[in-house]
């Protein structure tokens, strides 16, 4: 079915309130808006906080291959995510696992300023694939894996751009990593695609962008 048209609402910026904090990797942007309705009327002003950063968008890559049994396998990488690891106990509706903050993810990374183009996104994906999983492939071999998505549009304007590429397990090298202690010592594993999707159903793979890419890959 076709979705109905969006309501004709528009944001009108009233004021941007400068942050008292110095610039960092992430910046809180506090703005005052009014909503303009289809009849031309305006809402009362309201304050809205969002997060911004210089390198806003990210690429997500699904490296895969066919095993001897004919099943498609994908490479996953362990990641330690401080915001998830430091969730306060009082906000949790149920007890968290002792591994809170440790996630299985597909390789992914931020798009550099000079990569903001269709060709640049492929360069970004190839770079992240080498850094995080150890496969050195030409950017031209990266294929789109569906449209981009907004992972948290109520908080940040980041887009995720998805790619997939068939790799040769025999040509895997050591990941270059990016120098961050959060990337050091990660575990890399190849998992049959159907089993990886089952792990998302069981909550053992909790990363949303990874689940989106895995399910899209299964649809190819």
TrEMBL record:
Gene3D superfamilies reported in the protein's UniProt record: Nucleoside Triphosphate Pyrophosphohydrolase
Biological-process GO terms, alphabetical: nucleoside phosphate metabolic process; ribose phosphate metabolic process
Residue ranges of the TM segments: none
CC cofactor: Mg(2+)
Gene source species: Sorangium cellulosum
PROSITE patterns (alphabetical): NUDIX (PS51462)
Protein's name according to its UniProt entry: GDP-mannose pyrophosphatase
Top-level taxon of the source organism: Bacteria
Stated family: Belongs to the Nudix hydrolase family. NudK subfamily.
Keywords, ordered alphabetically: Hydrolase
């Amino acid at each position: 079915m076709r979705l109905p048209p969006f309501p004709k609402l528009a944001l009108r910026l009233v004021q941007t309130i400068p942050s008292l904090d110095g610039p960092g990797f992430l910046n809180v942007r506090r703005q005052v808006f009014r909503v303009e309705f289809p009849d031309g009327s305006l809402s009362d002003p309201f304050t809205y906080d969002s997060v911004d950063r210089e390198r806003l968008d990210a690429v997500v890559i699904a490296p895969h291959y066919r095993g001897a049994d004919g099943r498609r396998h994908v490479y996953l990488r362990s990641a330690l995510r401080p915001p998830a690891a430091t969730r306060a106990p009082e906000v949790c509706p149920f007890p968290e696992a002792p591994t809170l903050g440790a996630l299985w993810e597909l390789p992914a990374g931020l798009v550099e300023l000079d990569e903001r183009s269709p060709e640049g996104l492929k360069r970004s994906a190839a770079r992240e694939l080498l850094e995080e999983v150890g496969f050195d492939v030409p950017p031209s071999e990266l294929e789109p894996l569906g449209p981009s998505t907004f992972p948290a549009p109520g908080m940040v304007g980041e887009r995720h751009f998805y790619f997939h590429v068939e790799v040769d397990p025999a040509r895997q090298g050591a990941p270059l990593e990016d120098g961050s202690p959060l990337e050091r010592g990660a575990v890399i594993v190849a998992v049959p695609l159907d089993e990886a999707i089952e792990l998302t159903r069981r909550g053992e793979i909790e990363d949303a962008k990874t689940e989106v890419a895995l399910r899209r890959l299964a649809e190819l």
